[in-house]
């Protein structure tokens, strides 16, 4: 029996060896298991961590992320990517005891700005080292260059904290001769690129590394190169090879945003037959896309935005695999008919042709863009009706057709995924389509500057996620839907420049998020709705150019954020001055002109204009007011500065008080001199009397001062000569006397600034002052009654405008004109888009790699 038992046992152990034991690897050495456990202890471990499986009662070779040599059991690989590790990575880390490590991946953790220890240089067997996006900071130690077996080195980061010491980058490239992949994006390298590289390089990522000088052409001839990204190095001068590139067979991804690559795209690009991604944006490139490039039909991403490229785009249909096509801000021309070549671009996700010179209609029979999520065709000269397929794309999220010549009615919306629709600045007509209500994800609805007609149906309030509703500058009629005040997410409500009528019965609910309400240029009547008091974050309120008949809504003082208040050209009446303190502490622009306000100028109001008491240019608080992503909505206003000018966007430093054309009386309070941020002060066409306060000389950035058509007497204070920013001065039609100040800006003003004051003398008037003696006394020049005087002086103010107020004005106007005509705002809005772009491309890359 004992014998049988023995045989059985032997058999069993044999079976065991066959079945299980042979599959057991060599056990992980105790000291290495211990080192790993010590490492684990350095970080708090949550319930989802990979490191939970690191349990000393289990062999360490089977721990998650740990790889052992099958023959020896030594730990040779450690992959801790996305382990949620959080805490410092010190030089005394037990990890450095794992001297056999070949692959170490620490990426996507948070080592809380730890320095990279020189001890990494002791892990001399490493072939792969990935420390990317893990919040390391500081100098990258020169010791990294000892890792001469490295094939892959990745140290890119999200922040600016990592850098190389002088020559260390050169040393790295010189010593790491086997590198295949090197990604140092966002590391501050701050040197030129040395001539010698590992010839094995397949991936080189040096975006945003402050490298400068000339890129050695050798980079393009690395015969294994698959991916090259040198973006965001504006000091890096890139010249492309004009002959065949040695990397042509392998190169799949070439990304060079914002490098110095002036000139044309050379024909040699035609050899890059493996190219999938070509991105050369914001590089000053000019000329047309060379013919051979059209043969690269495998391209999936083509991004050439923000250059000066030109020529037709009609060959684009050849690129049947495109996912992303960004050609914005160039001079490409031609028509879009190629889009109708059947079933092109089934993969296409993003198409951006905005700000080019495309003409003609969008073809109506396009199919195959079922994956498109972004379609930008704004700022071209496209015309015709917008075809219905555009509104039916099943995946579309962003649609921007603004600033073209589209006409006809807006078709029914069928894509339910849209979150942004901008059709502004076209010639679209007809009603706002009802099908908009199916767009439950809509954030931005911008239909302004068209010829849309009909009423605003109250069902628009069903778009509960709307942030921006801009229907301004159309022909909409009827009343303002009551429910608009209940839209809890809305930031911008712009219904200006339509034919809306009736009283504003909208009740704005508590907790609303409205920052901009513009109802100006309609036919609204009645009173300012009291419920505006519920708009506690309101920055801009424009009710100008209506028929509102109310007293000054002084209760608006309770709105702590109000920056712009415009009530101009209505039927407001009554005094404004009030003994209780006003609190308009943030107001920058107040326009009450052309109403029936009366009584003394509101001292207590001026006292509380705290924001006007700051010179923003000096204190650096210069930003646009309530600009919701400049691409889709900007706050534009007409302001009067001698001439009526439209400001496409308003800076916080553009500080304006316009109380003109009312019935204010009494003196000009000298406290106005404390509002040192003022750019424009217009008190003209009132019944003001007394003297011009000398304190006005403190308004050092004042550009326009209009006190004309009042009953102001006394002399012009000589101190006003210190107003060196003054471009427009109008003191005409008052009772001023004495010498006109001389010097500086005052030498640029003409007669028109002073006429209608019988007692003034000196240049530019013909009346000589004849020395200091005998300042003439004030007399009422004409026996005109108020009515006649008003008519008269408004004619004169236009005449004087036409005559010009001197070179200051001309220069000022031309600057503003240039701002308009050079698409200054478009340039600014690009910044957002670019940022968006950088973030999305980075995220994309990031995703691709991990
Ligand atoms: C380790 O594993 C054993 C058995 O699987 C288990 O009982 C123990 O709780 C684990 N220890 C830790 C620290 O998770
Ligand atoms: C490692 O060094 C840090 C700081 O240099 C220290 O706080 C920590 O206690 C050390 N850890 C060990 C295990 O020695
Ligand atoms: C670590 O694991 C991830 C997948 O989890 C993989 O993509 C990555 O290449 C690995 N790192 C190394 C250095 O092998
Ligand atoms: C360069 O690599 C060699 C091994 O190939 C090594 O001995 C040397 O120390 C490294 N040089 C530096 C400066 O790291
Ligand atoms: C990069 O480093 C250089 C010199 O080391 C320094 O002058 C520069 O300011 C740094 N740039 C950034 C963005 O940190
Ligand atoms: C860009 O390259 C040109 C030469 O093509 C050079 O003259 C210019 O200085 C470079 N600009 C910068 C910012 O490096
Ligand atoms: C592009 O393709 C055409 C034929 O489709 C061919 O004739 C031409 O040589 C090609 N050009 C290049 C540069 O390969
Ligand atoms: C569109 O513009 C072209 C010129 O670019 C013009 O010939 C054509 O008549 C226009 N079509 C419409 C519908 O306005
Ligand atoms: C709008 O919403 C209300 C309730 O939220 C609903 O009763 C009504 O049917 C909706 N109207 C449309 C046209 O979707
Ligand atoms: C506003 O309300 C008043 C009184 O409640 C009413 O007479 C008027 O018709 C309403 N106006 C509008 C436009 O709804
Ligand atoms: C403020 O909103 C609430 C509803 O949210 C409303 O009942 C109240 O009347 C509003 N306030 C004013 C002054 O209209
Ligand atoms: C304003 O309304 C009142 C009645 O509420 C009316 O008497 C007055 O004439 C109106 N003012 C103007 C300028 O229309």
TrEMBL record:
Record domain Leucine-rich repeat-containing N-terminal plant-type: where: 30-69
Pfam annotation, one family: LRR_1
SUPFAM superfamilies: L domain-like, RNI-like
GO terms of biological process kind: defense response to fungus
Spans through the membrane: 802-820
Top-rank taxon: Eukaryota
InterPro entries tied to this protein: Leu-rich_rpt, Leu-rich_rpt_typical-subtyp, LRR_dom_sf, LRR_N_plant-typ, RLP23-like
Keywords: Cell membrane, Glycoprotein, Leucine-rich repeat, Membrane, Repeat, Signal, Transmembrane, Transmembrane helix
Main location: membrane
Annotated Gene Ontology cellular component terms: plasma membrane
Signal peptide: 1-21
Bilayer disposition of the protein: Single-pass type I membrane protein
Compartments, record wording: Cell membrane
Similarity comment: Belongs to the RLP family.
Identification of the protein by name: Leucine-rich repeat-containing N-terminal plant-type domain-containing protein
Lineage, highest ranks first: Eukaryota, Viridiplantae, Streptophyta, Embryophyta, Tracheophyta
């Amino acid at each position: 029996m004992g014998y049988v038992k023995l045989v059985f046992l032997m058999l069993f152990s044999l079976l065991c060896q066959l079945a299980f034991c042979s599959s057991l690897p060599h056990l992980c050495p105790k000291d290495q298991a211990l080192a790993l456990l010590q490492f684990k202890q350095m970080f708090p471990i949550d319930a989802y961590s990979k490191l939970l499986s690191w349990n000393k009662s289990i062999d360490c070779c089977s721990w998650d992320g740990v790889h052992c040599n099958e023959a020896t059991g030594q730990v040779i690989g450690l992959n801790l990517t996305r382990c949620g590790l959080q805490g410092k990575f010190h030089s005394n880390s037990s990890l450095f005891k794992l001297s056999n490590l070949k692959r170490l991946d620490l990426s996507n953790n948070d080592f809380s700005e730890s320095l990279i220890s020189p001890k990494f240089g002791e892990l001399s067997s490493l072939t792969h080292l990935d420390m990317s996006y893990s919040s390391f900071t500081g100098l990258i130690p020169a010791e990294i260059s000892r890792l001469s077996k490295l094939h892959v080195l990745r140290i890119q980061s999200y922040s600016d904290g990592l850098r190389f010491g002088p020559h260390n980058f050169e040393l790295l490239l010189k010593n790491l001769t086997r590198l295949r992949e090197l990604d140092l994006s966002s590391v501050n390298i701050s040197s030129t690129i040395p001539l010698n590289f590992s010839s094995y390089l397949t991936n080189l990522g040096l975006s945003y590394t402050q490298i400068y000088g000339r890129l050695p052409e050798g980079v393009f001839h690395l015969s294994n190169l698959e991916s090259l990204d040198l973006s965001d190095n504006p000091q890096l001068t890139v010249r492309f090879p004009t002959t065949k590139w040695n990397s042509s067979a392998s190169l799949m991804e070439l990304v060079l945003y914002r490098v110095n690559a002036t000139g044309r795209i050379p024909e040699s690009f035609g050899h890059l037959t493996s190219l999938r991604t070509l991105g050369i944006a914001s590089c000053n490139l000019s000329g047309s896309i060379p013919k051979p490039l059209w043969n690269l039909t495998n391209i999936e991403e083509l991004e050439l935005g923000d250059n000066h490229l030109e020529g037709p785009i009609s060959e684009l249909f050849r690129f049947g695999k495109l996912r992303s096509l960004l050609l914005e801000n160039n001079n490409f021309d031609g028509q879009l008919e190629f889009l109708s070549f059947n079933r092109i671009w089934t993969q296409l996700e993003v198409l951006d042709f905005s700000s080019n010179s495309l003409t003609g209609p969008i073809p109506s029979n396009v199919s195959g863009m079922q994956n498109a999520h972004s379609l930008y065709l704004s700022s071209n000269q496209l015309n015709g009706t917008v075809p219905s397929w555009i509104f039916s794309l099943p995946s579309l999220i962003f649609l921007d057709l603004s600033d073209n010549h589209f006409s006809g009615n807006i078709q029914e919306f069928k894509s339910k995924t849209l979150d942004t629709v901008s059709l502004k600045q076209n010639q679209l007509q007809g009603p706002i389509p009802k099908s908009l209500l199916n767009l439950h994800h809509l954030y931005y609805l911008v239909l302004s500057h068209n010829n849309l007609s009909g009423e605003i149906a109250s069902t628009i309030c069903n778009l509960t996620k709307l942030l921006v509703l801009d229907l301004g500058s159309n022909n909409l009629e009827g009343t303002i839907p009551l429910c608009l005040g209940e839209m809890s997410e809305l930031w911008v409500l712009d219904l200006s420049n339509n034919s809306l009528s009736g009283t504003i019965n909208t009740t704005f609910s508590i907790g609303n998020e409205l920052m901009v309400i513009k109802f100006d240029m309609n036919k609204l009547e009645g009173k300012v709705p009291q419920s505006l008091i519920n708009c506690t974050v309101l920055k801009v309120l424009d009710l100008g150019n209506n028929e509102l008949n109310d007293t000054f809504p002084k209760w608006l003082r309770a709105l702590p954020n109000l920056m712009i208040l415009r009530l101009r050209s209505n039927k407001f009446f009554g005094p404004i001055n009030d003994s209780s303190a006003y609190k308009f502490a943030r107001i920058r622009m107040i326009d009450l002109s052309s109403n029936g306000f009366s009584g003394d100028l509101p001292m207590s109001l001026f006292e509380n204009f705290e924001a006007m008491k700051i010179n923003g240019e000096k204190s650096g608080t210069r930003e646009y007011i309530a600009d919701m992503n400049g691409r889709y909505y900007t706050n534009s206003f007409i302001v009067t500065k001698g001439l009526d000018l439209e400001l496409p966007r308003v800076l916080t430093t553009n500080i304006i008080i316009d109380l003109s054309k009312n019935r204010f009386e009494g003196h000009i309070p000298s406290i106005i001199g404390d509002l040192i941020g003022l750019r424009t002060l217009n008190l003209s066409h009132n019944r003001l009397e007394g003297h011009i306060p000398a304190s006005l000389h403190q308004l050092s950035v004042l550009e326009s001062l209009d006190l004309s058509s009042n009953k102001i007497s006394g002399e012009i204070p000589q101190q006003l000569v210190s107003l060196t920013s003054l471009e427009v001065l109008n003191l005409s039609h008052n009772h001023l006397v004495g010498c006109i100040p001389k010097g500086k800006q005052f030498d640029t003003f003409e007669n028109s600034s002073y006429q209608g004051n019988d007692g003034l003398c000196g240049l530019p008037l013909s009346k000589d002052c004849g020395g200091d003696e005998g300042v003439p006394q004030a007399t009422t020049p004409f026996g005109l009654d108020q009515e006649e005087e008003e008519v008269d002086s408004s004619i004169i103010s236009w005449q004087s405008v036409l005559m010009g107020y001197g070179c200051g004005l001309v220069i000022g106007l031309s600057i503003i004109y240039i701002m308009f005509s050079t698409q200054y705002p478009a340039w600014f809005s690009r910044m957002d888009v670019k940022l968006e772009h950088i973030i999305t491309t980075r995220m994309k890359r990031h995703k691709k790699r991990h």
